[in-house]
Protein 1
Amino acid sequence: MQAFGRPRVWAVVPSIPILIVAALLAVGGLSATPAGAAAPSSAGPAIDAAATETVDRMKEYLRSLPAFTVHAQGTKEEIVNRDFKLQRSIETDITVKKPNRLRAFGVGDEGRRTFVYDGKSLALYLEPDNYLATAPAPPTLREMLDAMLERYGVELPLLDILYVATGGELGTKVLESSDIGRSRVAGVECEHLAFRGPKADWQIWVEQGARPLPRKLVITTRDNPTAPQFSALLSWDVSPTIDETMFQLKPPPGALPIPFKELPEPRQPSKK
């Protein structure tokens, strides 16, 4: 990549933080029309009741789970010199035990990070830099996620899914949406949904049947002329065996303590 110079990122699709689920909380309709469906009127966005119903079932199911693990295999596009696209790989593993346990580990082309919350404190360890940030934390997952995003601006992997699963609602605006139809993802029958916001398009594949879990995500950033994308395949365990030691972070000797830097003004969830 020497011909393109040192990668200079000026637009990056988020690595599943502020994901599609934020948009799904205010479902509208999408101009792409499934076979057999009427084309939406030009007078305004179409409201697809089927897409809304599928999203509602997904939200309710995620909130009903007392514990779960999810693995995400993702890619994101970075735009470097002269609008050249680089595709970066990201893998994320998250373990949740309600109401107050979380472990998230992410590894990709740009390093590794581990985040642990035990109901009293939170810790973030960054590799290979060997940095460790710690802070007191609120007593529930929902309150902790609020604090991390609004107070510190830290966006955890799969943030929106975690937020919805703990009962949160992220305000955003969806201009259009549609239930595209059935699709198969990694051997699982899913319903393919598509959404449009002011600055980004989202697609989500939700498992059919009694476990309406999100199985695939695609986000396209439309406010960038190169339209970079983020995509991920998700695999779930909704009856995991969880060891409490998972929520204890033991960094190697010599880890350099750094503070969580507070934002000058409270931050609100971004609206794509």
Protein 2
Amino acid sequence: MLNTDVNKTLRDEFNEIIEPYINHPKFQKLKHEIHHGITRFEHSIRVAWYTFLWAKRKGLDYVAATVTGLCHDFFIEEDCEHLTTLEVNKVHGTIAAKNAQKHFSINELVYDGIANHMYPFTDKPSSPEGVIVQYVDKIVAAYEFFISYNPVSIAYKKAAQMFPEPDYTQTLDNEVGPTLSLKRR
């Protein structure tokens, strides 16, 4: 059984690390960037969380690793609109690292981990923290892709669009029962 006090302490520590980054206006724009079927914001937080846990357990610089995981995809489509998909795969890490360097105070370990998280498209990350981000990103991306793009999920999303949830907030009509509105939200 998990100790909830320990988990709360870990969550609190994690939130303290990421809060200054996620509240930045440019980072907030990631909430509007779709990535693996979810937002790039959500993806980045998920990568940061698992990186935080892994690096902390291994006794590494978990703060730098967490920031690396959080900022590994710190770019918006405008930053790459002139590139092909293959080029984006190769260079988005460098773009993200430059954005992190421009907007935050990051060290060389964080910069290298962000820039090289797409190995083998890039050089290998030079630190264990960067290697962790590289692996966590691949695992999380595979999970997100499966959840977002598997046939059951796609069928569910299509059905949800065709048959939106009724709006049950309407008042009661005493003679016929609840009045329902099927308007889309």
Protein 3
Amino acid sequence: MKASLEELERCVKKLGMKGILLYTNLAGRFADEPEFRPLFAHAVEYDIPILLHPAKPITSDIVKDYEMISSLGNMFDDTIALNRILLSGILDQYPKLKLICPHLGGTLPFIIGRIDHQVNVLKRGPKYLTKAPSEYLKQVYLDIVSPLPQAMRFAWELMGPDHLIYASDHPWVDPKLILDGLRSLSLPKADEEKILGGNAENCSGSDPDLDCRRLYDYGPRISLAYAATPRWQEARKPAGTPSPQHRSAHPLRREGRHLA
């Protein structure tokens, strides 16, 4: 862990990296384990977000038939890793932690009521938590990558508008599919603008050189999607700048600036 923290310091302070990509399992172990917790402390100290993302799911052998690793395995890894963090007390220890989970949090938002009941009513869980697991969940940012608008709406109703972030999952998913799904919900304009840019800006730290309206996309692509609000497009792009669909899908890679 010492070498990892030294590399994190180098990446943030010398290379200007703006966040941490943290796998949902680390060769079968999980980031909430005590050995890895200094990472969360340093993320808070540097005021940078941590993005959970699956690599090889721990359920790979179980879901490899019918090519279910991506459709189910990744979602299960999101769910397990995020729930372990909620139940670990990390969000009490580091209440200012900016944690992002993709894919609408896997299945966790849809079963969080059961987890609340297990922990709070049946007393099956840690005794040191200061609030219900669902309340910790609301401290986390979820990206809205889902082809199902109804799932986006449920997340909006559960989490509120302040902790949802647009992302595209490019190149595996057409960004327009996610954007069209969000806009089909006809959410209040202010909520939509938060999801399309404002929330990403809030969880990106205070670096004035970071264009926070390029929203978090993740994984090996390390691309940041362009915000889709017309107001932002007109206000932010220099004169003569081509429209986003004609620009590189990897703006930070093109500019030599990567999200760790």
Protein 4
Amino acid sequence: MSEMSDEHILEDFILKHGENHKKILDVGCGDGELLIELARRNSFSELWCVDIYIEDALNNIMRAGFSQRIKCVAAKAEDIPFESRFFDFIYSIRSLHEFYNPVKALKEIRRLLTPNGEMIIIDWKKGAYTGAFERYYGKGELRKFLEQAGIRLRNVKMKEIGRFNVLLYFGMPFLSNRQRHNTFFYLFQT
């Protein structure tokens, strides 16, 4: 039996966590495959995806038969056209480095979260070899982005896992709501 790659472990982590939420948004959805898999596993959630190049996601979602369940919106991460406090779970995987303004994108994601909403951001860490010449961020840069976006660091957990930085944000501080977030703690065991 072969081991799962870090990338597949983190995708599976998002899928398992997404099973517990009602309104879910994928920011920078790319081809939409992760959201399609979430739709297969979760029949009760309302699902949306946002990307500036939404065509691949639209085509894949239609081919998979989920065009009635997954709503696609062509938009920048910095300007997502939804009302405030609309989603209880927002995730973005392998996209933060592509946002034009990461601070503005994080502010926008926070605006869209319900007061007790949860956000997972997973992106290549600084120095990761991906075969592409793109800018990836270190943990210090990410902390600075979060602070500039007005996100309280006491509500954030951050860890490097393999080639990735993982940010977990909760509307409520971790210690005041520990039991609710047990699914996250295995990622942060030392």
